[in-house]
UniProtKB/TrEMBL annotation:
It catalyses: dTDP-4-dehydro-6-deoxy-alpha-D-glucose = dTDP-4-dehydro-beta-L-rhamnose. Catalyzes the epimerization of the C3' and C5'positions of dTDP-6-deoxy-D-xylo-4-hexulose, forming dTDP-6-deoxy-L-lyxo-4-hexulose. InterPro entries: RmlC-like, RmlC-like_jellyroll, RmlC_Cupin_sf. This is dTDP-4-dehydrorhamnose 3,5-epimerase. The lineage of its organism: Bacteria, Pseudomonadati, Ignavibacteriota, Ignavibacteria, Ignavibacteriales. Pfam families: dTDP_sugar_isom (PF00908). One of its GO terms (molecular function) is dTDP-4-dehydrorhamnose 3,5-epimerase activity. It is an enzyme of class 5 (isomerase).
Length: 149
């Protein structure tokens, strides 16, 4: 996946029978993953954003609840345009999937449920990631609005 130019949602599925259920994403390959971490917020509607890396790609999945994930390709690391395209995804434990966020992107999320837990898989070791870390204000791009329909 490291050659992808845009975020890609790798869809999974769920099998249910009289014993229970199995959630899966069979097309996800861990070959370039070096570490992972789990994140949850204290309440729904809380935003954690924007975190970017020039060299590190990430994969993210919702293991509990649901969240909006945003990804933005950075054009200028010191002063990115506020008009960049924001890729927006909703991840949920009810729809198994893994979102690939390529290197060169900023990412962030807003929890939609009180119990949301996300796992991030990183292609960089922590010491590499620390030296490749860019932060922008949580509302620098704002894909967090919920559209009533």
């Amino acid at each position: 996946m490291t050659d992808e130019l845009k975020p890609v949602l790798i869809k999974g599925g769920m099998a249910v029978d009289d014993r229970g259920s199995v959630s899966f994403v069979n097309d996800f390959n861990f070959s370039d993953v070096k570490r992972f971490y789990m994140v949850d917020n204290h309440r729904s509607g809380f935003v954690r954003a924007w975190h970017a890396h020039k060299n590190e790609a990430k994969y993210v999945t919702a293991v509990k609840g649901s969240a909006i994930i945003g990804a933005v390709k950075i054009d200028n690391w010191d002063n990115p345009s506020k008009d960049l395209e924001v890729h927006r995804f909703v991840l949920s434990e009810k729809t198994p999937a893994v979102l690939y966020i390529p290197r060169g992107y900023a990412n962030g999320f807003m929890t939609l449920t009180e119990d949301a837990k996300l796992i991030f898989y990183s292609t960089s070791e922590l010491k590499e990631s620390i030296n490749d870390d860019y932060r922008y204000d949580a509302r620098y791009w704002n894909p967090w609005e919920i559209e009533e329909r």
